[in-house]
Amino acid sequence: MNLEELSARAEIHDVLLRYCRGLDRVDMDLVRGVFHPDAYVRFPESLHAGSVDGFVAFLGDEMPRFVRTMHVLANSLIEFDGPDVAHVETYLNADHQGSERHHWKGDYVRLWGRYLDRFERRDGRWLIARRRLLVDWMYKYPADGWFDDHPDASVSMRDGSDPSLVPVAGFRGTPLAAVDWPG
Q1: pLDDT of 64-95, one tens digit each?
Q2: Torsions phi, psi for 151 (to 5 deg)
């Protein structure tokens, strides 16, 4: 493995993480930004199969109907097919709490699945060109028995107020803002 491949792996991993952040913070611009303009997305037929623009529109309608979500990525296998194509399988655990506007009506649903992605490097950037979601299984937990009585629970931060969204500098940058840390 050479430095170029290590760099590509890191960039691909960051793209995957930005996608999850976009979902959980209901930031469809962030979600859209991880795909090439002509990307194709194949989720289960009842959800979406087609253009990335249609997919982002679907998510823009669907994600606000959840009280909260948390998408957690696990194993990710990256296999290169030349210098500009990578095939990536990433395991996923996704927790969802449906609101009264969602057909789950307050129930909690956990999904275990895998993203099968074709990444392409175009104009020096690795982005998703093709995505398929394989749902391995799901479980619906009844709403009774769950609680969230912590006063600082971040459920209300899906409106863009989450402090993790404040831009900070990288290795070479000057800090743009400081995260609100206690004294």
Answers
A1: 888 889 999 999 999 999 999 999 999 999 99
A2: -65, -20
Distances in Å between the Cα of 17 and the Cα atoms of 14, 31, 117, 128, 165 are: 5, 10, 14, 12, 13
Sheet hosting strand 85-98, strand order edge to edge: 49-51, 35-42, 125-141, 108-122, 85-98, 66-80
- The 8-class DSSP code of residue 174 comes to P
Strand segments (E) across the chain: 35-42, 49-51, 66-80, 85-98, 108-122, 125-141
Give strand pairing partners of 35: 128
pLDDT at 183: 45
Q: From the centroid of its chain, how far is CA 35?
A: 12
User: Taking a C-beta distance cutoff of 8 angstroms, is the pair 109, 98 a contact?
Assistant: yes
| 29-64 tens-digit pLDDT | 999 999 999 999 999 888 899 999 999 999 999 988
Measured CA to CA, the distance from residue 76 to residue 116 in angstroms comes to 10
Q: What is the pTM of this model?
A: 0.84
- Rounded Cα distance between 174 and 169, Å, is 5
Write the CA distances from 34 to 24, 66, 101, 144, 178, integer angstroms. 15, 22, 28, 37, 26
Q: Do residues 168 and 176 make contact, with C-beta atoms less than 8 angstroms apart? A: yes
